Structures are given as structure tokens and as C-alpha cells.
Predict the 3D structure of the following.
Amino acid sequence: MSAENIRLKEILTSPEAKGRKALAEHLSFSTDMSAADARALLAIAPVDAATASRRSLTDFNTSQSQSATSAEDQTAAPWSAVADQLNKEMKAQKPGFVAPLLSH
């Protein structure tokens, strides 16, 4: 394997290139920067917007599924109180009003 191929492989397959594909490719193919310097630059560069969005969405979905029960517990009480108050007001305004039954 030539020295240039080794350099390309070191940059493109480095952990620092993950989420920074476009920059890693640019540094590999459009510069003469050493693999060590390219990796150092990649390490401080922000991740690609698409990668960051996927990570954010994955993190969001994971945190949502883990905290769904506690979130329901935290919000159920305040909304229940609001619904109770609205139902009470409707019963006062319209005799015979029956509040709908809601389930979670």
C-alpha cells in the first residue's frame, strides 16, 4: 500500500471522521495535510448537520421512551385538574351535561 493510500485510509476511517464525512473527504483528497493533522482538525470540527439531526432525534426518541411514564405522571395531574374545572363549569351552564370519559 502506498503512503498516500495509508494517509487516505487513516483520515477517512478515523474515529474523528465519524459525522464529519464531507470534511474528512475534503482533507483527504484536496489537501496534502498529514493524517495526524487532519485528524486533529476533524476532532475539533462540528459534526455534519444531518448527523447531528439524526443523533438528536435518536437521543430524543430514547429519552422519550425512557421517561414516558414519568412524563405522563407529571402532566396527568395538572391536565386532570383543568378538565375537572371545565367539566364543572359546563355542568353549571348546561344542566344535564355529561363529561366524556377519556382513557390514556
